[in-house]
Design a protein that fits this description.
41% of the residues are buried. The protein is built from 13 helices and no strands. By secondary structure, the protein is mainly α. The longest helix has 32 residues, at 155-186. The termini are far apart.
């Protein structure tokens, strides 16, 4: 059950700490506790939606080289159990958040659950809408962190987070499409040879060149936006300005990995690529010094 809830992908929920950290509020124990609660609630809600998603895609996952080992697809976790657990989590988590006295978190969790269920049901098969839907889920996490702590969201912060989310999602689709194309090329030829199944139906509506162009455009826009934010003299220091260097290096490294065919699982990239971790650590350290020093 725990593996079916994909704990590695819970890394995305760390976005709830982003806005309070950028506002310098994480030094307060109450703010840190509120973010921790939001993190746990998003992990539970995400686990429920992953279970329901795997039930819907069980036949497709069984034909996928990697996804067929997932607990639901492999039969380790029976479908009725997965449906019951997933439905309970998505139904209980949003109203349970009211116990913590933050109705805005409840609203955002509800929006997150509704959006992810809509994505599971039909948006994942709609070209471009699938990119926007997944990106919006990331943005909701960041907005929730600001809501539970009560820090204002700046326009630049929202834009950078939105573009970063879109970059990761586009890179993921591109890596999936490259993998599907590679599988098609290595498939046995002949009129009776079955075509290798695509990881997603929506991949048929994309081309590698389109996703590469989109990724390049998003990367450029994100770098420009971050530079404008970091160089804002009224609120930021020299540490923010210097943080532009590791930020650009982070974007360039991620794009290089996607070009190499890596990126189908962004959380795996974050956990395994040492250069990416190094520049991300430098970025967080410099921004942290600018905020808290």
């Amino acid at each position: 059950m725990l593996r079916a809830c994909r704990p590695r992908q819970w890394l995305k929920n760390l976005l709830v700490f982003a806005a309070p950290a950028a506002a310098g509020a994480l030094g307060q124990p109450s703010a840190l506790a509120a973010c921790a609660v939001a993190f746990v609630l998003f992990c539970l809600a995400a686990g429920g939606t992953y279970l329901l998603n795997d039930v819907r895609d069980v036949e497709r996952d069984r034909a996928h080289e990697r996804k067929r080992d997932r607990p639901v697809a492999s039969g380790e976790l029976p479908v009725p159990v997965a449906v019951t657990a997933g439905a309970l989590l998505v139904a209980v988590v949003p109203p349970a958040s009211l116990l913590f006295g933050e109705p805005r978190l409840t609203v955002l969790l509800t929006c997150y659950v509704v959006l992810t269920l809509a994505y599971t049901r039909f948006l994942k098969d709609v070209v471009v809408c699938d990119l926007v839907a997944v990106s919006a889920c990331h943005v909701l996490r960041a907005v929730a962190g600001a809501a539970v702590v009560g820090v204002p969201l700046t326009t630049w912060f929202v834009i950078v987070v939105s573009l970063a989310a879109l970059l990761v999602v586009v890179g993921k689709r591109e890596a999936e499409l490259r993998a599907a194309d590679a599988a098609a090329e290595t498939a046995p030829a002949g009129p009776r040879a079955p075509a290798p199944p695509a990881a997603r139906e929506t991949l048929r509506g994309y081309s590698v060149s389109y996703l590469t162009q989109t990724r390049t455009t998003v990367s450029a826009a994100m770098i420009v936006t971050y530079c404008v934010w970091a160089l804002e003299p009224a609120e930021h220091t020299a540490f923010h300005a210097v943080s532009i260097v590791p930020f650009i290096m982070f974007v360039l490294r991620y794009n290089l990995l996607v070009d190499r065919g890596v990126g189908e699982e962004p959380e795996e990239v974050a956990l395994r690529d040492r250069p990416l971790q190094a520049v991300l650590t430098a970025l967080v350290a410099l921004v942290g010094l600018g905020i808290y020093l």
